[in-house]
Design a protein that fits this description.
single chain, alpha/beta, about 375 residues, about 15% strand, six-stranded parallel beta sheet
Length: about 375
Amino acid sequence: MLRDDCWDVTFRGVTIWPYLRFSYQEKKVTAYKNNYRFKFSALLLPFFLVIHSCIRKRPVVSVVARSGMVDYVQAEFASENILLVSRSEQLLGNAVFVEAVWLLFRKLSWRIVRSEYDDVCRFLDSKGIESRKYESDIKTAIGDYFYNCFISFFVRGRVYYTNCLIPKIERYMGLMDSVEIQHGVIHEEHMDYVNIEKKYIKNSLLVWSSQWEERLKRIGYGGELIVANHDYISIDDGEERSGVTIFSTVDEGYSRKVDAYKGAFPVRLQKHPRDYFSYSNDCFEEVVDGEKLTACAICHDTTLIYYFLKNSVFFVYLLSPNEDKAVVVRRMNEKYGASFGENFLVSDSVEDALEIIRLHEQDQLRIS
C-alpha cells in the first residue's frame, strides 16, 4: 500500500516530488555508477550540440549505451537523421563530458540557492516529512532544475531521451520538445509512472507497444503516450538457442550465490550493465550478448523476462538472500504475466536451478 504523496513540494514552481518519491515510498532504486570510458566523439559532442542549436533540424536521441537499446533506437529512428547521444554502460558512450557538467550542477547548485533549499526543507517538515532523510534527493532535484535550463539552450529541436543528457525533471518542466523513451519494465510499483496526474506532466512518453500503453493508463499515468513502431521485446524467428545462461543483476547477495557455483555443468554468465561485482569463479564463460541465444535461463527480476516469455524460454528465478518464494511467484505473475510451473520455477541455488532445467529439458518435471 502506497503512502499519500506530496506533489506540492516544489522548487521555483516545479514539483520535485518525483526525486523524493522512491525513498518516501520505500521502493528500491537501481544505483548508477559513473562509467568514465568514452569514445573520441565525446570530445566533439558539445560542438555538435552548439551547431544543432543553430540548425535545429536533427532530432536528438539520448540513451544508455546498451546493445539492446542502441539496436532499438536504430530500428525505431531508421528513417531519421538523428544525433545519437549515449551514456557509457555496456558499450562506450559519447556523453561523458556533458554528464560531468551535469554532475557539477548537482554538486553546486543547491549551495548557490541555499535559502531556497532551506525553504524546501522547511516545507517538508511542515508537512510532517523529515527533510533530513531526503537532503540528497532535494539537492539532486535542484541541480537538475538548473542543468535542464542550461541544456535546453543547446537542444532546440525534438529530443528523445532516457535520463541520459536530459534529466527526469524535464518531464515536469517542459522546456524542450521532448519525448521520454520507455527503457525498462513499467509496473504497479514503479514510482516514476504510477498515479501521476496529467497536470504535472509536460511532455510525451514513447512506449514499446499498445500493451504498455494500456498498462500505463491502468496504473494511473496521465501523460501523453506515443506507441512506437517497433517493440523493444522481439521474437527471434529462426534463431537457434542453446545452453543455459545465468543473468546477473545489481544485488550483491545474488551475485555471491552465482559466484559460489562450483559445478561442472557448462553455463554462461551474462553480466548486468550495472553489475560491478568482481566474480572470482572460473566456471563461467562470460558473454556480452548471450540472452538471445540461450535455451534456458537463470535470472532475477529483469526486463529480459518479457523476452523469455515472448520467445518461450523457460527460466528459473534464483532467489536473493531473504527473498520469499511466495512473494516472488506472485510478483512474477502480476508484473510479467509469468505462470509458475509453465514458464518458470524458483530456486535457492545455481546447482538446484540447473537440476530443475535438466529435468525440464527431459520433460520429466512434475509440478506438485
